[in-house]
Batch of 2 targets.
Target 1
Amino acid sequence: MIPLSKPYITQTEIDTVIDVLKSDRLSMGKYTELFEKEISKIAKTKYSIVVNSGTSALHLILKSLGIQQGDYMIVPSFTFVASANVALFEKATPIFVDIDPKTYNVDPNALEDLLKKIEQGRMHISGQRVRIDKVRFFMPVDVFGQPVDYDAVEPIVCKWNLKMIEDSCEALGSEYKGKPCGSFGEAGAFAFYPNKQITTGEGGIIVTDNEEIARMCKSMRNQGRGEDEAWLNHVRLGYNYRIDELSAALGYAQLTHLEDILYKRDNVAKRYSQMLSEYDWVEPPYIANYATKIGWFVYVIKLDEKINRDRIIDYMSSHGVQVRNYFSPVHLQPFYKQLFGYTEGMLPVTEKISKSTLAIPFYTTMTIQEQQTVVEILKEAVERVG
Ligand SMILES: Cc1ncc(COP(=O)(O)O)c(C=O)c1O
């Protein structure tokens, strides 16, 4: 089976984790701090606060910005469910915005139209009119490692006074016009599940230049302890979102060869795009000219609309190639439909794109032969069952 993803673990990672095991410090030790320092260098932000998942990172950012019941947060539906769920955690409501059909990221025109519609009192969720003054947050997602067009969304964010949180969980190492993803907005988050560019097993991190956000996130990840971190002194509601030291050590070791990892992933992506260029029934990922660097997360292709994507998935899976539909829209997830009564037709571009996109195996150590096998099986699938 050629897997969809595979972590890249070298002897450096193994030695570094063993170093922790031989120490007495299994939580909040030197590697937690080292990892945070390295991430700050990559994101070019003043502060980094590592936590136990990307979801925890996004949740703490929103909490530190004072999200509360009755607030609304604009977010794309073409993303992982956690991007929207974090608003629900705080009894706020996500409002979904449609995407650009080429980049799969938030479409700035759709964002502007949506805000105008809300301003004119024409937007209702669960029978309630959405008030523009309650639309306080905007969470763009750098989908698959592709940066959002930040120059295009910035004037809209300013005009409507939105607090922007960058869900960069899939975009470690990506750059928009030379500026690192994660550094746009009030704060950003990266995630380190094993399918990501680098992994900590489970883990995520908040990056920000805002001292207050950093201070709040640091306290809330650690049971709401005060700045002195005194063990039984809790100054606010907090969580146990700490990362353990073994995971931080793994992440730190991974970062020692981040450039090599990104370079190798870029090569795999380029080889796929080259191999697929001879077929007119498939579109490789589109790379906008403002994406000056891409930290590739997954490699997602778009099949011709006439092809039955789901049959392709079944065929490839039963022929030794793991593939997945990426993404299934959040607004059409069963519990979103149940909560808000959403139905198909609400976000035409998101829905159309999500029916024909497909993530194919993609990992740092992928060989040309493995890629050729994937492309051959894909071609065979299209010919036989497409
Ligand atoms: C866009 C996006 N947001 C949030 C997350 C949540 O990260 P985690 O799974 O580490 O909680 C992910 C993870 O896959 C993601 O892809």
Target 2
Amino acid sequence: MKDKIEAYAKRLKLSWIREHFHEVEAENHQEYLLKLFEQEVQNREERKINLLLNQAQLPKTGNQPFQWEHIQIPQGISREEILEGHFIHQKENLILYGGVGTGKTYLATLLSLNAIHSFGSKVKFFTVASLANKLIEANQKGSLPKLMKQIEKLDLLILDELGYIPLHKEGAELVFQVISMCYETKSLVITTNLQFGQWNHVFGDPILTEAVIDRLIHHSHLLVFNGESFRYKESLLQQ
Ligand SMILES: Nc1ncnc2c1ncn2[C@@H]1O[C@H](COP(=O)(O)OP(=O)(O)OP(=O)(O)O)[C@@H](O)[C@H]1O
Ligand SMILES: [Mg+2]
């Protein structure tokens, strides 16, 4: 009988039930069945979240709470709406602008984690340079449409470090295509150390740069990160 139950559970893709049905204790049939269903659903949700976390490829983070003191937030959005990822439902963008070590990547990572855990959002984290390389490589291999389709399925795309490395022409054009595709269909979070007026240094072409900025800022919130580098402060504290 045990073998048959396992076989049916497998056919029905009830993997938790297949492995654990014989361990569950209950007073009656209904309670037993309820426990099985509850555990199966919980297990599925955990697996889904783990999969989303794996796919997102977020940087490792510490667990210190996020400090907002040196960050200017525009009107129309609150700290909670940012940190909890609520702007994703409106398909709005965030631009996180400021100097090194001020928490841009940290905030982008924390809000991504929250969106995955709370809403099961599909998130993907790239540095701008790594996305450009990936797009160029896919273009050469003929797999660009496939990569674009994967990006199209996301709810939130994080583009980190816009500004540290200028893009080659092909990379700039392909990154533009991605930003264009995301326009009004999903949320983008971009971290940068450059004011808009200097984005030309990254994209290398004023017309392309203008088109990028135009799409980005239409539904976006600009957060300005002031203050000193946390990395610097933390290393001073350790000494
Ligand atoms: N506002 C903050 N609240 C709490 N911790 C912070 C904050 N900002 C930075 N930190 C800490 O400092 C580390 C460095 O910050 P982060 O990597 O986010 O900087 P960044 O703005 O992305 O810098 P860069 O432009 O050099 O990439 C974080 O991993 C975190 O531990
Ligand atoms: Mg960073």
